[in-house]
Amino acid sequence: MPSHAPDHADPLSDPHPASAPLSDPHPASAPLSNPLARERAHLTDSRAALRAMRADVEALDLRDVAANWVNAAALHHQVSERIKALADLADTPLFFGRLDYLHAPDAETAEGAEGERFYIGRRHVHDADGDPMVIDWRAPVSQPFYQASKTAPMDIALRRRFGYTGGELTAYEDERLSDPTEAEQTSKLLQSEIERPRVGPMRDIVATIQPEQDEIVRQGIGGTICVQGAPGTGKTAVGLHRVAYLLYAHRERLARSGTLVIGPNRSFLHYIEQVLPALGELQVAQATVEDLVTRPALGAEARGTDSADAARIKGDARLAEVLRRALRSYVTAPTEPCVVVRGSRRWRVPAYELEEMVEELLTRDIRYGAAREALPQRIAHTVLVRMEQAGEAPDDRVQDAVARNAAVKAAVKAVWPPVDPAKLVLRLLSDADFLAEHAEGVLDADEQKTVLWAKPGRGVKSAKWSPADLVLIDEAADLIERTPSLGHVVLDEAQDLSPMQYRAVGRRCSTGSATVLGDIAQGTTPWATASWEEALTHLGKDGAAIEELTQGFRVPREVIAYASRLLPAIAPGLSEATSIREAAGDFSVRAVDPAELDAAVIAACRDALTHEGSVGLIAADARVPALAEALDAAGLTHLSPGEETSAEARLTLVPATLAKGLEYDYVVLDEPAAVVDGEPDERTGLRRLYVSLTRAVSGLTVVHGAALPERLN
């Protein structure tokens, strides 16, 4: 696999001469005889073409092209978003690879068909004549860049990877996939890109997607897929790139129905928020589960906390049945007839007929609000039948008028009253008798006592709702009125969700599909899922495909081997992750005197900062204040999770509870025993430790004063 740096002439001639139909952009030009110079020239021309594409959109005259101001505003917004999507990011390579086909991909037969050359990049770029200069990585013609190999060349003569420094093209590397005399080798540029130091938010992996990742990314929109991924396998990046791919392949459909990325916390969402815009996708919303279920208009916002036992029970799927029973209890049997007066006539619907209507609607088990809206129409229809029997000829307008009649409204309100979902949950958690009545046979007495508030809330706005309470309100709201569904939802770090949280997410994609990402071994809540099959059932996606990624690209092999010592205790059924990293990485475990722990941690941070890239100091939450003081006293500037690192500020102090999903070039892990002890049980603590150990990209230093957990010895 020849590799070429800018200061060395290419010893090999370009495999496709300028006169070939592979259309070199600068044929036979003397200064561009060097292949690297020609590739740089193509990059320059492609950037110019992209600027021209953007200028064409900016020059559009939108005056008098819309029928009304609403359409005009929508059109202006679409054009504005298009202009943003055409931005040329100076430090981001416009293309990162090249494919030279043996035959034209769209030729009906391979015989006699001439090959074509395609530059693969983050977005499509065409010249003034509409001919492509860069092909979007998501296009079918780009797939061999990720999937082709020596054993399955996919009609590719040459695959070329480009190396960049900033936005400047500085090297290239060739693989002649159809040449039987060339042996398959590991790509040095690919390895270098994977190991490149990271400062700032998460970046895309579009140049380094591996075949097994690409297969997941390009799966169709029709079904849900679950990805079990060990640390460093790129599952988050795969999920984000899958969104980008689906938006490319199904843009109109998803533009109507919407897409959403759900992450575990705000720090995580801030870390990943630049990936999709870098790929030209600006319309994907991001949220946490708590964001989805918070209802400020009702006054239901999380201001309280639950014990671990209370949160676990409130998150149990059995609560859905308790809520359903409690809601249906508001429906009462009618005791009075409904009498509708129209003109000089009185139309009477007896109580027993009203009761039959109510029973029929309850039997259908449709949503509470939908049934409540259907009941007045049922009553009005009965009145219309009476009118027709009396010789009148009413039409639909009469039925609608009867349904709005005051007597009908009063009858409906009496038997099927409106219910506020927050007030329903407030009553359940505050009224022991009401809870006992509707939890009978579902929750035992101890469980009921655990979820009841010690100090009942006086009202919705004054109640100290917990995050688990908000999920119950969301469930109740959906029982009353259907939650709108999106076209596609990506759920990351999914292993930590409770069954009721899965149900809340599932409501958001009930008619769409989902990409579920996580690692059972990293489940760090007391209610963490035991299996993906169980989680997918609660999500409403039974039978979804489950893929497993075990080949790591981020975590050094020594680090992942050390962390994997915990797997038999935290996830005995999972395969141990491997790493393709050739470099072992910097790894050390330092035992120190407990009295000198803070000083030793500061020294380890100073050592880490001598390297290029980001540094994360991860510690048990209880240790964070003391370490912050020690860092300040030592004059070491440090950030909090969610704050963007820069060349001047590369050290982040990370509470262990917020470390999930984040990554740093070098990690200093403070006192593993404290990380374990900070959780309510040993298994959760060991899982939290597993997460903390696997955040490093290039090096890990473990500093401890107390004895290490037994599994790590």
Automatic annotation (TrEMBL):
The keyword Hydrolase applies. One of its GO terms (biological process) is recombinational repair. This is ATP-dependent DNA helicase. SUPFAM superfamilies: P-loop containing nucleoside triphosphate hydrolases. InterPro entries: DNA_helicase_UvrD/REP, P-loop_NTPase, UvrD-like_ATP-bd. Keywords: ATP-binding, Helicase, Hydrolase, Nucleotide-binding. Residues 208-556 form the UvrD-like helicase ATP-binding domain. GO terms for molecular function: 3'-5' DNA helicase activity; ATP binding; DNA binding; hydrolase activity. Residues 1-33 are annotated as: Disordered. Signal peptide: none annotated. ATP binds at residues 229-236. GO terms for cellular component: cytosol. Residues 1-13 have a biased composition (Basic and acidic residues).
